[in-house]
Amino acid sequence: MGKYIDMNxxxxxxxxxxxxxxxAIFIPDVILMFIFIGFITIIFSIIKFFTTELGFTxxxxxxxMGLINTKSMDSPLNKINxxxxxxxxxxxxxGFGNVAITTSSGAxxxxxxxxxxxxxxxxxxxxEKYDEDRIKKQATEMxxxxxxxxx
Length: 151
Prior knowledge:
By secondary structure, the protein is of the alpha+beta class. It has helices at residues 3-7, 27-33, 38-51, 89-94, 116-150; strands spanning 15-19, 53-57, 60-65, 71-76, 80-86, 96-103, 106-114. Helix 2 runs antiparallel to helix 3. The protein is elongated, with a radius of gyration of 19 Å.
């Protein structure tokens, strides 16, 4: 797990956080298995469990879901417009929910993410840190450019 994110790291990038799909996504399928329908539906949950990746580095938010029909996202942290979390009764009990991410290029929904509130707050902290680092870097470059012209 985590191969997609690791394979797409850029220069000077490190993975800060990886979200995981919660095991509780299997509960409805297990219940349906007792009615003999779940044998087919549980296959989709197993594929989702093993093929969904969501995480962020010190510079980008990276995610992928799907096996055959894949949907991936790769967005700089400063291009993230909104992140919201929703969870139902089972989500509250077992600690999982859906994470909706809106970027400047589109909207993405990752379902069944473990500890979604923690993921969102860690992402927001990283976005703030990224913005602070970017501003400091720009200020340093401007200061060195001004020093260079005054010589």
